[in-house]
């Protein structure tokens, strides 16, 4: 059981200036920032090997006004990015966090490359839903796993210890809320007490806690969870016990295209560039350009919570640029259908319904769902199809923080030495699943992670 305990009369076996809970992109970025600022850092990771939601993500990070954009002649700035974020969330994004991260993320990526040897490049294949500029950045491998591997290597080279198999179960605090240390439970059941001068919570959200999901995001209760099972809401539980303010627990990132039963992400680029989704009867049911997060809800409303991605050879070639899609092809999730008859056999839908679904998409410049496909050509045989479902990827609500990532109390004051970032902190997607803008998760993980690490290093 996790919880909060009094720091009185606790004897700590060791003490370190900064303890970070979680070794995902957020925790490792915070560790590098704190170490660069001269801090003594220890990262605690519950798994035997760091994995987490970062490894399961695409690894794409949105950032404005970067040198990679400038090199390709793309005019972008933090203000425009902020407008995109607030437009997607209908002006319900946390204003403090949103304003901070749009300014911080570009310099953070350049710092990671310049100071820690993590190379980035700009993705220019297509414009992600809700973004008005090409601003997605990734490491050369274009995967979250590679991003995490590179961050972990940088942390090791910086001499920052990462203790694995170390789940933090208890936070020790005094009457004023100052964090004195943590209790760590090891796989064999043994426990260690570690004192700290400041604590950064980088342990993501609560997507792996079915009870919390059912309570706060009932539309996704029972949906496939495509995130780390260890994201059980520890930060929220600790925060509530300490009297911290919690915001936007109803916010999350969904995805309307998780291949089943393979559980492999199918890139939404296929939909943005001309593909369609149909249900088991062969009918379209939503605007595939509305955003892949909210599309998860529409897919789950279909019979059996199942839909089919349908596209053609042109888009199949585009998909092969993405590692996840190549994995799906190798796993047999992608089916080539040389004609409508074969497509009907694979989907189980009437052939005439499939033909009608494709035809209606191009009859008018704007179809009945409000989707504009005037700039993409009609689908042509051979067709490709994938059986998919809607899934929950991660939650976007969490602990309220100030501009330095310090956790806020319900009265608006801040905890002096308690910080939260990434999925442990409130994100910038607002309170609805539709507020998620592509890349919001890694945006706050990296930007807030750096902010938290630098601020924690000033606490003595």
From TrEMBL:
<keyword id="KW-0560">Oxidoreductase</keyword>
<dbReference type="Pfam" id="PF00890">
    <property type="entry name" value="FAD_binding_2"/>
</dbReference>
<dbReference type="InterPro" id="IPR003953">
    <property type="entry name" value="FAD-dep_OxRdtase_2_FAD-bd"/>
</dbReference>
<dbReference type="InterPro" id="IPR027477">
    <property type="entry name" value="Succ_DH/fumarate_Rdtase_cat_sf"/>
</dbReference>
<protein>
    <submittedName>
        <fullName>FAD-dependent oxidoreductase</fullName>
    </submittedName>
</protein>
<keyword id="KW-0285">Flavoprotein</keyword>
<dbReference type="GO" id="GO:0016491">
    <property type="term" value="F:oxidoreductase activity"/>
</dbReference>
<dbReference type="InterPro" id="IPR050315">
    <property type="entry name" value="FAD-oxidoreductase_2"/>
</dbReference>
<keyword id="KW-0274">FAD</keyword>
<dbReference type="InterPro" id="IPR036188">
    <property type="entry name" value="FAD/NAD-bd_sf"/>
</dbReference>
<feature type="domain" description="FAD-dependent oxidoreductase 2 FAD-binding">
    <location>
        <begin position="18"/>
        <end position="430"/>
    </location>
</feature>
């Amino acid at each position: 059981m996790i919880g909060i305990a009094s720091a009185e009369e606790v004897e700590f076996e060791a003490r370190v200036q900064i303890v970070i809970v979680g070794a995902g992109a957020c925790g490792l970025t915070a560790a590098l920032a704190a170490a660069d600022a001269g801090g003594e850092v220890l990262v605690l990771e519950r798994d035997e090997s760091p994995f987490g939601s970062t490894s399961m993500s695409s690894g794409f990070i949105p950032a404005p006004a970067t040198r990679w954009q400038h090199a390709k002649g793309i005019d972008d700035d933090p203000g425009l990015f902020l407008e995109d974020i607030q437009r997607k969330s209908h002006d319900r994004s946390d204003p403090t966090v949103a304003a901070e991260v749009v300014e911080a993320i570009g310099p953070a990526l350049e710092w990671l490359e310049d100071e820690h040897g993590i190379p980035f490049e700009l993705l220019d294949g297509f414009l992600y839903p809700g973004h008005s500029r090409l601003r997605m950045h990734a490491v050369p491998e274009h995967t979250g796993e590679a991003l995490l591997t590179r961050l972990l290597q940088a942390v090791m080279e910086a001499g920052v210890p990462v203790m694995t198999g170390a789940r933090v179960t208890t936070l020790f605090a005094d009457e004023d809320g100052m964090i004195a240390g943590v209790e760590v439970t090891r796989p064999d059941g043994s426990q260690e007490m570690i004192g700290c001068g400041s604590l950064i919570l980088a342990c993501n959200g609560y997507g792996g806690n079915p009870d919390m999901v059912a309570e706060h995001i009932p539309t996704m209760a029972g949906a496939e969870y495509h995130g780390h099972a260890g994201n059980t809401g520890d930060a929220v539980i600790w925060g509530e016990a300490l009297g911290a303010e919690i915001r936007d627990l109803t916010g999350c990132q969904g995805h309307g295209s998780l291949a089943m039963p393979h559980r492999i992400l199918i890139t939404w680029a296929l939909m943005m560039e001309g593909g369609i989704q149909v249900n088991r009867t062969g009918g379209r049911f939503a605007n595939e350009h509305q955003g892949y997060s909210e599309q998860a809800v529409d897919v789950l409303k279909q019979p059996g919570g199942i839909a089919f991605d349908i596209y053609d050879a042109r888009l199949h070639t585009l998909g092969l640029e993405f590692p996840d899609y190549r994995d799906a092809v190798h796993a047999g999730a992608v089916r080539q259908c040389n004609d409508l008859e074969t497509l009907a056999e694979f989907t189980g839908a009437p052939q005439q319904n499939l033909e009608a679904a494709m035809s209606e998409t191009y009859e008018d410049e704007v179809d009945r769902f409000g989707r504009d496909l005037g700039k993409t050509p009609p689908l042509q045989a051979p067709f490709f199809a994938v059986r998919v479902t809607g899934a929950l990827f991660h939650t976007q609500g969490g602990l309220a923080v100030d501009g330095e990532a310090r956790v806020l109390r319900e009265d608006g004051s801040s905890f002096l030495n308690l910080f939260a970032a990434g999925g442990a902190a409130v994100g910038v997607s607002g309170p609805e699943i539709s507020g998620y803008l592509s890349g919001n998760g890694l945006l706050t993980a990296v930007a807030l992670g750096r902010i938290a690490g630098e601020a924690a290093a000033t606490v003595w």
